Amino acid sequence: MIQTLKRQFCVLRYDGRWLFGLTAGIGIIGVIIYQIILGVEQEDGAYVPLGTILAAGTLLIMILALIMSEFAMYFNIEVSMGCTRGQFFLSFFLTSLVMSLFGYGLVLLVSLGEDALNAAVHPELTIEVAVMPYLLRWGFPVVLLAVICSMFFATLVLRYGKRAYWILWAVWMILCLGFPRVVEAIGEAPDSLFGKIGSAAIRLFSGVSSEMWILVSVLAGVIGLTGTYLFLRRQQVTS
């Protein structure tokens, strides 16, 4: 199993460079852009850690993108070369998790650097959203769940092909197009359909305790890992 893990790290090493580079790069770009905005507009009051938010969002997107794009290919190659399905499942999961946690560490570094920079250059400003406590408390569970869900989605595409792909793509597009409209409608048009949906969602999620969120996350993780493994056990190698 150790040799399988070593080979998996070698295989995914190049993909990890994209994850690390884009996470750190976009985070730094976000910091630079916001510093330009602060310098031009001379804002008073509070600042938003834009670089940290962009880095965290990029990390989650890259986890999903890399696993979804590479999972089926590596499964077919490695299993056809003698790797068992169980070994592939465990090695791919652990390797993806370790790389994602390195990306998470980069997000923490971006956050520390951005807060230090703003404190030095704009000491008169306070932070509007303290992201670091959330990163420290929820960062690891979110990264873990992102890896598990991405593997599960990739397994569905491997198993069911284009049908699963287009369903997941449609859900993704609905979230990308609908979520900003809901957020905007909450403040600008609370009586509209999107405003009511957003207000109802806020009431629903705000009423859930931290303990319940942890329980839901654990259940989702267990279901995702179990489902992925069960699907892979019966999955045939495809061209």
Beta-strand residue percentage: under 5%
Helix and strand run: HEHHEHHHH
**Beta-strand segment tally:** 2
What can be said about the biggest beta sheet?
2 strands, parallel
Please provide a written account of the structure.
The protein has 239 residues and is mostly helical. The protein contains seven helices and two strands. It has helices at residues 2-41, 50-80, 85-121, 131-160, 162-188, 193-206, 210-234, and strands at residues 46-47, 126-127. A two-stranded parallel ribbon has the order 1-2. Helix 1 (2-41) packs antiparallel against helix 2, helix 1 packs parallel to helix 3 and helix 4 runs parallel beside helix 7. The radius of gyration is 20 Å and the shape is globular. The two termini are 25 Å apart.
Tags for this model:
239 residues, two-stranded parallel sheet, 85% helix, 7 helices, mainly alpha, globular
Helix and strand topology:
Elements: H1 2-41, E1 46-47, H2 50-80, H3 85-121, E2 126-127, H4 131-160, H5 162-188, H6 193-206, H7 210-234
Quick structural summary:
With about 240 residues, the protein is mostly helical. It has 7 helices and 2 strands.
